[in-house]
Design a protein that fits this description.
Layout: E1 11-14, E2 19-23, E3 27-29, E4 36-38, E5 44-46, E6 51-53, H1 56-68
Protein name: DUF2093 domain-containing protein
Organism: Sandaracinobacteroides saxicola
InterPro entries: DUF2093
Length: about 70
Amino acid sequence: MLNFSTGRAARLRYLSGSFQVLSQGDHVLCAVTQRRIPLNDLRYWSHELQEAYASGEIAVARYGEMKKQGRI
């Protein structure tokens, strides 16, 4: 079976504790590092900012930065 979403970034709606696939793909990009995150490995995101993160450390740093700026 052909998989046309291979190599393409997915579009997701990040929810609290889960996400919804809006456009098929096999990865998303980290909002901070632009590193590819395979959907099967996606563990960290912000539903407030609608962003994905490559690690917990990156997510915590981004949260602190956005809180300081008053964006969340």
